[in-house]
Every structure is written in structure tokens, then in C-alpha cells.
Amino acid sequence: MKTKPKQEASPDGSMSISGHLKELRNRVLICVIVLVVGFCACLAIAPKLVTLFTDLGKAYDYVFVYIAPQELLMEYFSIALVAGLILAFPVLAYQIYAFCSPGLEKKERTYVKIGLTAGTVFFVLGVVFARLVSIPFMLRFLISFTGEVDVSASISIQQYISFLLTVFLIFGIVFEMPVVASVLSLFGVLKAEWLRKGRKVMIVLIFFLAAVITPPDVVSQFLIAVPMLVLYEVSILLSSLFGRRRAQKQSDENEEE
């Protein structure tokens, strides 16, 4: 007797394990294809992207070299991979959301949509801030040491690009503070009171970080520290607002019950 194939969806509309695995496979395949296409497209313009990075350093008299024969070629691949990931991010984010959304409530899906959109915007703002403020100060400060001794700055292209990408990533993540605080508060994981209690410690840490990554003058330090402090205060404000909103909804639901 032939057995009937198992249905991928149960009578109540939920999907079976095999159905979830098949959907996951299809979505992963889409992500891989988009990444490969993005990588190939960006590889064609990788030399121009590397030139954009080196132009930042050449403005401060940096001279770039590559030590290993394959070093410059590998940087083309690295830049193309990062640029391809950025290019494919909207598709990747949608595929992740589409796979997870059936297990979320309606309001949770709304929170995730808002979080993804706001997170992308704030990450871009962090990268722009790093490009316009932080990196110029860092490059100028670091090259200033060559005036103390009789040496010239011939920088490995691999180390230089790695440095820039790290700075972009750090500031992009730092600018995510308000978004992360808001989402965690909406889900009840974070409370504004915890952020307020840790304010003094965070102020010290932020100014210490600003002093480390900026030239040794007060103006530069404040240019880096003040935006971080503002983001922390915005995080407290948003966490407080969304925390009260969540508490009010829970109170209304308890009264209805």
C-alpha cells in the first residue's frame, strides 16, 4: 500500500517541520544568489572603491604600499564583499523578516519593521559621522607622530583599509543605541531606570574612548564624545517613552480581563 506524502501544512494553517526546512532552504538560496551577484557587481568597481579610501589618507600625506604580491588583489575582494553585502542588505533583511514573521504577533511584526528601518538609518548616520568627523581627526593625529622622528608613513593597504572598515563599523554600531534601547523597551527587556543608574559610568567611558581615538586637544575630544552622550540620552528618553507605553497597554489589558 502506498503511503500518502506528509502535508507541509497542518489543518490549522501552521507549517510542518519539513515545510519550515524547505522554506529556510529557499530563502538561504535567495540570499546566497543575491550576495554572489552583489559581490560580482562590486568587484568590477573595487579599484574605484579602494581609491576612495586611499584618497582620505593621501590628503594627510600618507603613502600606501602592499607588501605581499597578492595583498592588493585580496583587498579588492574584501572591499567587493563588504560592498556586495551592503548592496544585498535590503533583500537579506526581508528574507530574515519573512521567515520569522509568521511566529510573531501583529504588534511584534510592526516593532521589527520599525527597528529594521530605524536601525539602517542610524547605522548610515554613524558611518557618515565617522567619515566626516572621526576619521579625518584620527588620520591627522596619527600622521603627526612622524614629525617627531625622521621616518615616513608608508602604510600597508591591507592594514589601512582594515582600520577604516573597523572605525566605520564601530561608529555604525554606536549609533544603534537609540534603536536597540527602543526595541528592547518595547519588548520589556530593558528599562529606562537601568540606563539612568548607569549614566555616570557611561559618561566616564565615553570620554575615555573619545580621548583615546582623538587628537590630544579638548575640542576634538568633545566633537566625538558629545554625539555619543546625546545618543545615550536619546536612548534613555526613548526607553522611558516606550516603557510607559508598554506598561499602559498591559494595564489596559488587565482591566479588560
Condensed summary:
By secondary structure, this protein is mainly alpha-helical. It has helices at residues 17-43, 46-58, 71-100, 106-143, 157-174, 177-186, 192-197, 199-213, 218-256; strands spanning 63-65, 154-156. The chain has a domain at 180-249.
End-to-end gap: 53 Å
Which stretches are poorly predicted, pLDDT < 50 over at least 5 residues? 1-12
Beta strand count = 2
For the residues shown, what is the average pLDDT? 81
Written overview of the protein:
This protein has a domain at 180-249. The radius of gyration is 24 Å and the shape is flat. Strands 1-2 form a two-stranded parallel sheet. The protein has 9 helices and 2 strands; from the N terminus they run H-H-E-H-H-E-H-H-H-H-H. The chain has 257 residues and is mainly alpha-helical. It is 76% helix and 2% strand. The relative contact order is 0.09. Helix 2 (46-58) crosses helix 3 and helix 4 (106-143) runs antiparallel to helix 6 (177-186).
